[in-house]
Every structure is written in C-alpha cells, then in structure tokens.
Design goal:
The structure holds two protein chains of two kinds. Chain A is mostly helical. Chain A has one domain (55-342): ABC transporter involved in vitamin B12 uptake, BtuC, CATH 1.10.3470.10. Chain A has helices spanning 13-38, 40-53, 57-82, 86-105, 120-135, 138-158, 163-184, 190-197, 205-224, 226-234, 236-241, 246-268, 273-287, 291-315, 320-342. Chain A starts with 12 loop residues before the first helix and ends with a helix. Chain B has two domains: 1-71 and 153-165 and 184-233, Rossmann fold, CATH 3.40.50.300; 77-150, no CATH class. In chain B, strand 8 and strand 9 (210-216) form a beta hairpin. In chain B, helix 4 (108-120) packs across helix 5 and helix 5 (136-150) runs parallel beside helix 6. Chain B is globular, with a radius of gyration of 18 Å. Chain B starts with a strand and ends with a helix.
Chain lengths: 343, 233
C-alpha cells in the first residue's frame, strides 16, 4: 500500500485518484498514532482503572455475558443481514421490552381487581401466577419473544404487506403497549429506564449460566450446520430444490436470535441490542468478500468492540449499551474508509 | 425410462390456475426448451418439477435413478445475490449440500467434484475471487458449476441468459450444448430467447397456461410455428 504514496510521472487519472485515497488513509492513521503517543499516560491510566474494576463480581459477570452474547449476535447477524432480515432483530427487541414491562406490571394485579364473577379460588390462582411472573419476568419474556420471532419470520417470508413495514408495525405497537402499561402502573422508574438503555448492573449469576448455555448452543449449531446455513443464506430456492429444509433453518435462526436478544437486552438495552446483530456483519462486509472471512471477522469485531465499549463505559461512566454502539460505529466508519481505499 | 414424467399437472395459487393439465416427459440426453409469454406458467412449471410448489392435480414421477434432490437447478438471480460476499469456490461447493446426507461437513469427494466442475466451466482461475465482482456471464458459469455439483443427469435452467450481453449469451449456449452433447446431461431450459434457445434443443414445449405444443424441434418448425403465424394473420 505504501508505494501508492509516491507519484509516478506517467500515472493515469485513476491511479492518481487511488494515491490520494491512500494518502488520506495513511494521514489519518499517522494522526491517530501521534494522538495515541501524546496520550499514552491517559490511556494507560484508563486500562489501570479498568483493571481495578475487573475485581468486581458484577463487572466480571457483565464481561462474560456480554462477550458471549456479542459473539452469538454477530454470527447470527451475518445470516440475518444477508437475508435482509435485520429488521427482525430490531422488532424482537421492541417486543422484548413490551413483554418485560407487561410482566412487571402483572405484579400490580390483586384478587380484587379481577372480575367479580370468577370464583375466588381462580382469582387467587391468577393473582399468584401474575405475582410469580412479575417476580421473575425472564421466562415469560422469553416465551413471548420466541413466539414473535416465528411470527415475524412468517411475515417476512410470505406476507402480502411488505415485510419490513409489517415488522415496524408490530415492533412499535409492542413498544407503545409497554410504555402505556408502564405509565398506568409503576410509572417511568429506574427499572424501566434500564430496560430501555441497558445497565451494567443488571446481570445476575443465572444470566451467566443462561448465556453460557446459549452461546454454546449457537456456536455448536453454527459450526455443524455451516455448509447448509451458507446454502440457505446464499440461495434459498436452490437449497430447497436440493432437499435442504430451508424453512427449518430459518426457524432455527429466528429462535436463536430471539434467545440472544432476550439474554442481551438488559445489558445493552432493548433499543440498542439489535446493533450487536447488525454492526459487526456490516463492518466486516466492508473489508472482506468471502463468507467465511466475513463470519470470522464479524465475530472478532463484535467481541473486541464489546470489550472496548465496556472499558470506556467503566472508566468514563458512559451508559454501557450506548458506548458499545459508539465503538461499533467507529469501527464501521474505519472499515468503510479502508474498504474504499482498497477498492 | 423417463427422468421426469409429468402427467396432467395442474397448479393453482389462491384460486388462479397458473398451469393447467400439462403432460410431458424428459428422457436422458434430452434438451428441452420451454417457451411462452410472460405469465404463461413456464417458471411455475419448472418450480413444480423441483418440488418447490405442490401441484393441485396430476402426478410428477422421477425415474431412471433420479430423485428430486439430485436435479441441478439454475435459478433466476435475485438482487440480494449479486452483492453477496462469497468466493466462487464457496458458491460452487454449496452445490454439494445434497450429497452430504447426514454428514455435517464437505468431504474430499465433494471438494474434488467442485474442483472438477470449476475446471469444466472455466472458472478455476476465479476460485478465490468474490462472486459479486464477477461479470454476468462469469456469475452464470459459477452457478452452473454449482448446479453440476448437485447432479450429473438433469439440469433445470430458469431464464439463464436474461441480463447477459449477446456475446456472453452465445458463450453460455455453447457451454450448455457441450454439457448436453459431450457429457450427456439432460437439459430443461425456460427461455424468452426463442431463437438462441431453440438452436441446440431437440424438444420444445410451448406453454400458454395449458400446453400449446410439445414435440420435436423439427416438428415445431415445420408445423406449429407456421400455423401460429397464420392464425395471428
């Protein structure tokens, strides 16, 4: 790349154009290097401070869960983006928010608030069930989101209405339902705010186990079915014609996406979780043009961006989810610039 | 015995009949061209042969050792595909998916089959290139190599020369002819391009929701084509 910097007397307009682009890129890199050298102390300080944070249990949990969720999301993201299903991830996170707030609101149900014509025993049962859901809202949310994943997939596959508008319809409706239910019951408190924009404090020990299991499942399935996933992603009609059960693989991908969204949304925030799915795939597609390379690069980019975002969020007390998205955006712009120069 | 025998096949979508009582068969070594106007049911018929749509009536039987999964298919390209990050090798290899059975990964036989087909279609030197940077003709040859990984008896081509420039189209027809004549692959091609497609074919099927004509190319040229011209005045 470096030799492009030096002008040649006989060069054509096109090669000169490329040289300008190369000069621009190398200048940027040099500036970044100089900035880094002048700020070594501050950067070292940030790492040292992050080191002290690493001792905390909740940070360790957040790191484990976040890294695994990022990995899963990026692998699924490559397929989702290429199949033009990226709206599904976004829709699912909104549905997740809606069902989570409804689950929490169920805690406000009392035996007296139910219709009087129901027998007392049934009313007691319903109340107990609602209280149970409100105390531990994750299983309820998981079920709702998985069901919606199948619904959204079906809509994208065979709806008369354009798939993306139908998904936008469902996701905003779910969000609206969540907001209405919240304002009628608890009001916009810290919990709800955390669900929307994510909180590093939200990870419990059980989340660690769930995310470990989930990422193991996603990784194993992705590796084992890699040739078939490629076939279905590249050309669904051909894959179907040669006996691949494309419908089943679509369902599998939707199911795994739903699980990833539910596990990750409390740390990333429901409004930001879909960026974990979309950004790494798009960034690596700027640089690589082979499916395997894109997939591996997306996985690496995703985990690295998560780690850097986490560091920034700890040291400069930024919101975790937003910090990670910002880092992802930075990488996307950087990769786009490099891709433009190479092209 | 016929590779595929269609008998009284009728296909309908939401009450609208797209294909009505079509009967024909494809024999080993045949080169069949399916022609007809837009909306005449050509592509639908082909999708039925592949088992992608279920006929409302009639029967489709596969014979002579052919199963539905072992048909090579060259679909019409979608817009998404043209911008897909995949190397030629990855695309061609994905044609071997139907030979995997219960295996999870490609084995050596799959890889050598892909190599052989890339060589046959002259895309070996593009092996590591990205599919999206290829010309239209190169993309079609890549997809054809993939289709050949899935079959060595029957190829189904859906409007293969649409969007190719005349030189690339002529080259593509030559490739198909040599596959048919030298390698004994039966070919079924849906086409708009009557002249080009019919030059090498030995059988013709004219679709018009029902079947207007099915027979030898010679018969079509001498009989049916003239009659159609007369009828249209």
């Amino acid at each position: 790349m470096l030799q492009k910097l030096f002008a040649r007397p006989d060069e054509s307009g096109e090669t000169r154009h490329r040289r300008y682009k190369a000069v621009a890129l190398w200048t940027l890199l040099a500036l970044a290097l100089i900035w880094t050298l002048f700020n070594l102390r501050a950067i070292g300080g940030a790492f040292a401070e992050f080191g002290t944070y690493l001792g905390y249990k909740f940070i360790q949990r957040a790191l484990v869960v976040g890294a695994l969720v990022s990995l899963c999301a990026s692998l699924l993201g490559v397929t989702l983006v290429l199949k033009h299903y990226s709206m599904i991830g976004d829709g699912l996170s909104h549905v997740g928010f809606g069902s989570l707030t409804i689950a929490m609101a169920l805690g406000f149900v009392t035996a007296d608030s139910l219709p009087a014509f129901l027998p007392a025993g049934l009313r007691g049962g319903i109340t107990a069930l609602c209280k149970g859901i409100a105390a531990n809202p994750m299983p309820f949310t998981l079920v709702v989101v998985v069901l919606c994943a199948f619904l959204l997939l079906r809509i994208s596959e065979r709806s008369r209405m354009r798939g993306d508008s139908a998904i936008a319809l469902i996701s905003t409706s779910a969000l609206a339902a969540g907001v209405i239910v919240t304002s009628m019951t608890s009001g916009m408190n810290v919990d709800v705010y955390n669900y929307m924009f994510g909180s590093i404090l939200a990870m419990s020990a059980s989340d660690v186990y769930v995310s470990l299991a989930l990422s193991a499942v996603v990784l194993v399935l992705f590796v084992l079915f890699y040739p078939r996933i490629f076939a279905v992603t590249f050309d669904e009609a051909f894959a179907r014609a040669t006996g691949v059960k494309a419908g089943a693989y679509n369902m599998l991908i939707a199911l795994l996406t739903a699980l990833t969204v539910v596990v990750g949304m409390r740390m990333m925030g429901t409004l930001l979780i879909s960026s974990l799915i979309i950004f790494p795939a798009l960034s690596s597609m700027r640089l690589f043009s082979r499916f395997k390379a894109v997939t591996v690069c997306a996985a690496i980019v995703s985990v690295v961006c998560f780690a850097v975002g986490m560091l920034l969020s700890c040291v400069y007390s930024l919101p975790t989810g937003a910090g990670i998205v910002a880092v992802n955006l930075f990488v996307f712009i950087l990769f786009s610039a490099i891709g433009a120069v190479r092209a | 015995m016929a590779l595929i025998a269609m008998k009284d096949v009728t296909i309908a979508f939401e009450g609208v009949v797209a294909v009505e009582r079509v009967s024909f068969q494809v024999n080993p070594g045949d080169y069949l061209v399916i022609v007809g106007e837009n909306g005449s049911g050509k592509s639908t018929l082909m999708r039925a042969m592949l088992g992608l749509v279920r006929p409302r009536g009639g029967s489709i039987t596969y014979g002579d050792g052919l199963t539905r999964e072992r048909i090579g298919y060259l679909p019409q390209q979608t817009a998404a595909q043209r911008d897909f990050p995949a190397s030629v090798e990855e695309v061609v290899l994905s044609g071997c998916v139907n030979r995997m059975g219960r295996r999870f990964f490609y084995n050596r036989a799959d890889r050598s089959k892909a190599e052989a087909n890339m060589a046959l279609l002259d895309v070996t030197r593009l092996k590591k290139k990205s599919y999206r940077t290829l010309s239209g003709g190169q993309q079609q040859r890549t997809l054809l190599a993939r289709a050949l990984c899935a079959t060595d008896t029957l190829l189904l081509l859906d409007e293969p020369v649409t969007g190719l420039d005349p030189a690339a189209a002529a080259e593509f027809y030559d490739v198909i002819r040599s596959l048919n004549r030298k390698h004994g692959v039966a070919v079924v091609m849906v086409s708009h391009d009557l002249g080009g497609a019919m030059r090498d074919a030995n059988r013709v099927l004219v679709m018009n929701r029902g079947m207007d004509f099915f027979g030898d190319v010679e018969e079509y040229r001498t009989g049916f084509a003239e009659r159609t011209v007369e009828a249209r005045g």
